[in-house]
């Protein structure tokens, strides 16, 4: 089963909690699923699992990525000025897979499934596959 979400981001860099939408998608699946994959088909966005209880964690992650991959010094910047976003998205990756049990994703107490926007604001597609 595939569910596609459309997420409108509002800032150049942000992390958006998708966990409630993923939980809903898994619960709606008409099968005893064992896995749920969350995938973003964009080259300047990523999917990660991290804490979302303390909003400073998301800010820290984005700050660390900014220090790790500075803006404006890459060859691709001559094309459209977003090379750092491509590099950051490559480091983080476009998907996460979570085990499912009793129609619920098996996440840890503090874990959340996050869309990481690295080149916004934009409308992003997120594909949730339950199998």
Q: Would you give an account of this structure?
A:
This protein is 29% helix and 36% strand. The chain has 131 residues and is α+β, with helices and mostly antiparallel strands. Strands 1-8-3-5-6 form a five-stranded antiparallel beta sheet, with helices on one face. Strands 2-7-4 form a three-stranded antiparallel beta sheet, with helices on both faces.
Task: Give a brief rundown of this model.
It is built from four helices and eight strands. The protein has 131 residues and is α+β, with helices and mostly antiparallel strands. The relative contact order is 0.38.
Number of helices: 4
Radius of gyration: 15 Å
- Span between termini: 7 Å
N-to-C order of helices and strands? EEHEEHHHEEEE
> What's the arrangement of strands in the largest beta sheet?
1-8-3-5-6
Specify the biggest β-sheet: 5 strands, antiparallel
Q: Please give the number of β-strands.
A: 8
Give the overall form: elongated
